[in-house]
Amino acid sequence: MQALKLPAASGWQWLTQGYALFRRQPALIGLMVMSYWMSLVIFNVLPFIGPIVASLVMPALSVGVMTACRNLDRGLPVTLDLFLRPLKESPKPLMALGGIYLLYTLFALSIASLADGGGLMQAVQAGKPLDESTLDEGGLLMAAQVLLLLMAPILMAYWYAPALVAWHQLSIGKALVFSFIACLRNWRAFLVYGLALVGVGALLPGFVVGVISGLFPEMGSIVTSLVTLPLIMVLAPTVFASFYISYRDVFVVTEHISEHA
Fold first, then answer.
1. Fewer Cβ close by (within 10 Å): the C or N end of the chain?
2. CB distance 242 to 18 below 8 Å
3. For 189-194, which contacts have Cβ atoms below 8 Å and span 24 or more sequence positions?
4. How confident is the model at residue 206 (pLDDT cuts 50, 70, 90)?
5. Hey, where are the domains in the chain?
6. For 54-88, how does the pLDDT look when each residue is reduced to its tens digit (9 = 90+)?
């Protein structure tokens, strides 16, 4: 297995090709993405262990959606049972990946909390938006910057790791290293990809809503709803499909991949 170094423009192509892949079977891919989010929401509302369980199963569920995208790309059957297949076939390593990600995130939050006295940590644990007085404090911005810096390595190591574990039976350590190296080699493409997501997912819709709301102030809330809901229904599956497209483009796979993986 080899990780290619792609040009920066690939980041934009991942998004556009992800959208094209999603359009081939929008109802089923959209249903799987909705099932993914709903599963995590349901787990998170459970008291005490809910958020932990959600973190543990998240890698397997995400690979389930990506497996559907892979089958669709290869012209193989796409069925709803693909969503839970990774959780049935590779539960231990995928849940271990989720546990590693959770522990590292808690570690990063603990370090970042030193910059603002724990305000950011408390907000994350409570799951509530920060009040205005807290947002005005300079320590919060510093904590957020520290957190972003600390989370960058684990995000890079985790990005492809679930797919490498589920599809290629790599050990957790190898999967994390391969993913980190692949992301590092393609940082330019990922930078363009991130900017494209911000532009398509936030700036463009915000501009449209702002213009229409300015022309028709009394319709502001209606326009926001009309723009936001369809955007989420299209963008979320597109992003999942783009995850697979980036994997497909970055990795040169020499070993056989089981059609049932």
1. N
2. yes
3. 189/6, 189/7, 189/8, 189/9, 189/10, 189/11, 189/14, 189/246, 190/11, 191/8, 191/11, 192/8, 192/9, 192/10, 192/11, 192/12, 193/11, 193/12, 193/14, 193/15, 193/242, 193/246, 194/11
4. confident
5. 2-252
6. 999 999 999 999 999 999 999 999 999 999 999 99
Q: Which two tokens stand for residue 221?
A: 């809330």
* Residue 65 · residue 30 · CB < 8 Å: no
Q: 134, exposed or middle or buried, with CB in 10 Å at 0-12, 13-18, 19+?
A: middle
The model carries a pTM of 0.85
Structure tokens at 144: 């957020």
**Which residue's entry shows tokens 């709301």?**
213
Which residue has tokens 């998240």? Answer: 58
